[in-house]
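Course exercise 7: structure representation. Students receive a sequence record and must write out the corresponding structure in token form. The form below is the worked example handed out in class, using TonB-dependent receptor (756 residues). Read each field label carefully; the graders check that inputs and outputs are placed in the correct fields and that the protein name is recorded exactly as given.

STUDENT ID: A-19
EXERCISE PROTEIN: TonB-dependent receptor
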Amino acid sequence: MKNTADYIVFIAFLGCFVNLFSQEASISGKVTENGEPLPFVNILLKGTQIGGSTNVDGQYQLSNIASGDYVLLATSMGYIPYQTTLTVKEGESKTVNIILEASAQALDETVVTGTLKPVSRLESPVPVEVYTPTFLKKNPTPSIFDALQNVNGVRPQINCNVCNTGDIHINGLEGPYTLVLIDGMPIVSGLGTVYGLTGIPNSLIDQIEIVKGPASSLYGSEAVGGLINIITKNAITAPEFFADGFVTGWGEYNLDVGSKIEVGKKANMLLGVNYFNYDVPIDNNGDNFTDLTLQDRISIFQKWDFERDDSRILSVAGRFFYEDRWGGEMQWTPEFRGGDEIYGESIYTRRWEILGKYQLPIQEKMLLSLSYNDHSQNSVYGDTQYLADQRIGFAQLTWDKSAGNHDLLFGSAVRYNYYDDNTPATVNADNIWIPSVFAQDEIKLVPKHSFLAGLRYDYDQRHGNIFTPRAAYKWKISDNDIFRINAGTGFRVVNLFTEDHAALTGAREVIITEELKPERSVNVNLNYLKKIYSDNGTFVGIDASAFYTHFSNIILPDYDSNPNQIIYDNLDGKSVSKGISANLDVVFPNGIKFLLGATWQDVSNTENGITQQQILTESITGTWNLSYTFRMLNLSVDYTGNLYGPMRLPLLGDLDPRQEYSPTWSIQNIQFTYKGWNNFEVYGGIKNLLDWTPNKGNPFIIARTNDPFDKNVTFDTNGNAMATPGNPYALTFDPSYVYAPNQGIRGFFGVRYTVF
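STUDENT ANSWER:
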């Protein structure tokens, strides 16, 4: 009996011993996107019954795995499937962290820009395009202005070959017709139209929402052609620390650094700093002028988010921006600033902004939004000085109310504009208060049909009562097919010197022929969205639009009547922008992803029965983004590019030897990103692969760089330049012939570090 008991004990001990050394393995880890945990992601060992899903913190664990080789698969709707091959040994506890990449058009994002209230992108009656930080990382740039070059139908336009200031065109409309918001606040306008999209740290951006079409009924007179809303990260959910820095072969340095700081139990602060420097004068086209404006700028951003009962909103943010930029003759130094010996354009910009949102502590959804900014500019263009100050205050109260099949929004706003400069056009400083009220009603007619009607009333003491109606219709054909139509009117008051820096170069005399009247417009936009999910996991998204805008009283610069003048007056006729645009988004199960966009547009002005293509406006545009990740190598490749069709360019007369129309040209880039180190990303590549610059095919870009103050130009009695042996083309100095960046091919290298 004793021997039997001993035998049983021995067998049990041996079983435990064997089990100890032949334990089955496990795999665990965390699934994230851009550092944010992803819940409910499906995790599976391919070809087995072993699987599960991530919890609310993005964590997963697979247990009872026998030793062997496996393929680990992670899938979630709206994300590129992830798979990797791994070997599991007996008793091993293996950690595999997974980063999923979103399909830009596959996600049903929450958007706020189209209707001023949070709504599913698919349910919004107004089409809204959404771009995430993942999209921005595919072609890293030092500013949002540059990053938008790969968005279809949106073009960063450089307005001056010397100072390189610019604005954003949507569907062929000039920059001032596009309203730029930060967290829904209209603080980028006037002087900020030129500089407002630089200095916003890309790493602080949560998403960018773009509306192409009328939005004046909600956002006022500047949202005639569309708007761009830059939404910053919430401090509560932001990473603990992040840093992103890169350098280019031209000597450009860009650094983004940020950190989340907990202040007490219910407050979090997000601090971000962006610094950009470029101080290496380069003249590859040989005209003795800088090809790229030298810049030294810093932007400091701080945002506080507070946790409140019932998830009510309370946030306060502020930004300080300072920039010193100059361009001009290669031998220019600051002691020549404002003189007529060496030509240079030097701009000192100081700007600060504050904005906040507070949801009232009542049962109704009422939100108070406030913002204020102060912008000071000290600049010289050759020997022409331009000093300007602008202050804009904004307050808005909205009430979001649902009643039956009506989704209502009521609001009241007041805007304060102060503007003063030293130009002859500003005799007295503007000091304007503009009160507004607006209402919007989205009616669900039947389950698949809805109609939105809106009306805004503004009172401008210069122009009296202003009404801007708006209407939108949505037909949800199916969950994956949506048709929308939007229509609205616009009203805009123009300030030439804050919006058109061609007027400040000193190269042409500015002529204002009459008291300028406000511009008015009517805009219609049709949109069709279709999503296709195939059985093999391929996703296809199609987003197509047709647009038409008719302007009356439009104010456009006339470069043609007199080559030495820019003449501004209200167009005695009409201006029309029309076209079609489409985006195609495809994601294959193997991880190959491409986004292709194309736009055809016809922007023309008709006066005295003569129709002419609008100057500096392209006929066709194309953008693309091709991406693939080699999972085994932790290496991603992104090939991005754009293409622009012919645009009419400003010449200085019949003898000007430069091309009247630009060629079709393209800027293409490639980037490689390695993600094999914990918390680190290393990236590098080449920008402008084709080395395209606008001097190709042109004898020169900037006219008469050898005599920028026109000291050796002979003029006739009408003030027109005359052809002489020293000036055979009858030219004057002019840097306004610009349609593409002068910056050629260059490499870049960068590192990102993030702690969650």
